[in-house]
Design brief:
The radius of gyration is 19 Å and the shape is globular. It has 2 domains: about 30 residues; about 110 residues, DsrEFH-like (Hypothetical Protein Ychn, Chain: A, 3-Layer(aba) Sandwich), CATH 3.40.1260. Helix 3 runs parallel beside helix 5. The protein is of the alpha/beta class. About 55% of the residues lie in helices and about 15% in strands.
Length: about 150
């Protein structure tokens, strides 16, 4: 029994090490090419800088593969920035044009005293940004939380 346990541990560690070495042996462009054309991706962003980066990532992915589903979920201070910072409007409009869904956490909106009517018409809301991310994960989305 003990021998089987150690054999199992060895296999798990070896397979993890092999996977890491395999990915590291690939070029950066080869790794990026592994993104599925019909993939589903989402980023949870807490501030305007990460929102901008998420929009740019989504734009680049959708330009190469228009069928990709890409969502940006906003929590924390960016929920207020989205309603008050006019420099973010072009990013919102670009997202709408590219088919990138932006979803804002209503809990954060309430904290920062922002109303849905303060947002661009394309912005969606969810009662809980974290629960929404969990739902996306259950639907097969690869997610990044920043």
């Amino acid at each position: 029994m003990k021998k089987q346990f150690y054999s199992l541990i060895f296999l798990l560690v070896a397979s993890t090490a092999y996977t890491s070495i395999n990915a590291q042996s690939m070029s950066v462009s080869d790794v990026e090419k592994s993104i599925k054309q019909e993939g589903k991706y989402a980023i949870l962003a807490p501030n305007a800088r990460y929102f901008q980066a998420a929009v740019n990532s989504g734009k680049n992915l959708k330009a190469k593969n228009p069928e990709i589903e890409f969502e940006i979920v906003l929590i924390s201070a960016v929920t207020k920035d989205l309603a008050t910072d006019e420099s973010l409007i072009p990013l919102i409009e670009l997202s709408e044009k590219m088919g990138i869904r932006i979803v804002v956490c209503e809990f954060a909106m309430n904290h920062f005293e922002v109303n849905k009517s303060d947002y661009h018409h394309s912005i969606k809301t969810t009662p809980d940004g974290f629960a929404y991310i969990f739902g996306l994960q259950e639907l097969g989305f690869k997610t990044i939380t920043l």
